[in-house]
Amino acid sequence: MTANVLLAVLAGILVGVSRQLNGRLSLSTSPLVASFWNHVVGFGVLTATGLAMGGLIPEGARDVPWFDYIGGPIGVVFVAAGSWLLVRIGAANTALLIVGGQMVSGVLLDWLLADSFAPAPSTIGVMLILAGMALMQKRF
Amino acid sequence: MAAAFAAGGLLTLMVHFNGELGRYGGALFSSWTAHGTGTIAALAFVLALRSKWRAAGDIGRTVPLWAYLGGVSGALTVMITSIAVNSPLALSGTLALGLGGQVIFSLAADRWGLFGLPRRRPGLRDLGALALVMAGSAVIIFFGLGG
After folding, report:
1. CB atoms near residue B24 (< 10 Å)
2. What is the pLDDT of residues B120-140, one digit of tens each?
3. Cα–Cα dist A115/A131, whole Å
4. Cα separation of the two ends of chain A
5. What is the ipTM of this complex?
6. By C-alpha distance, which of B126, B75, B1, B112 is closest to A18?
7. DSSP codes, A8-24
8. What residues 22-61 of chain A have any CB closer than 8 A to a CB of chain B?
9. How many pairs of residues across A and B have Cβ atoms under 8 Å apart?
10. Which of A19, A77, B47, B134 is most buried, by CB atoms within 10 Å?
11. pTM here?
């Protein structure tokens, strides 16, 4: 269990490392170009991993509807936005805004799509997040 | 501010669509595909918007090689997350601990200016905002997800 906890924390740290590296690269290039390299390099690593594990395209891949492939292009804009923000407002503020936005929109999406949705805790959580945003906004 | 909040919304959409890909072919297939389509989309965006391949001045001439490794870190995240989600931690535990790791790293990154970015010291207001957002996220993750 300890190993799993460490892995989950490490995953979060790696998100930060990735954002920091892309932010640094964006200073020498531009946020979109940094996002491009992020995707090329990641694609290379994942291709190697997939081949080492015995195959890249699993059985079910043929049934994927076309619009589910839109996640990749959305990610490009997201990574570029992260670099743009990071060099302007710093790592902690970037993390805070992105996490807040993710949580609030996640609640909205769940509310629209999921069968099981808990309104009371979600509302409390969203209000806490918005309070945090309001506190922060005094400076921007 | 609004743009950053919107970026979080983009992340939610991305996670949703990549999760759908994962339902058909697993986490590795989902991430591999997203990076592949992302590469093509990024190239199209760069060309369409004439985004600069190199910034002006010294900083554009001297790019450290390690700055290109953000994608490695991103690819590792996918693999590690898919292990953690399938452990007893489940999605909520994985998300919460991941947020914790992200916050601790970001504070350290600002404090010491890690990877060649400027140093910053958080003020009381920053820390207060951070605490509120984390508390709200924890409530949503542990009590709001899946009811």
Report:
1. 18
2. 998 898 899 999 999 999 998
3. 28
4. 41
5. 0.91
6. B75
7. HHHHHHHHHHHHHHHHH
8. 22-25, 27-47, 49-50, 53, 56-61
9. 424
10. A19
11. 0.91
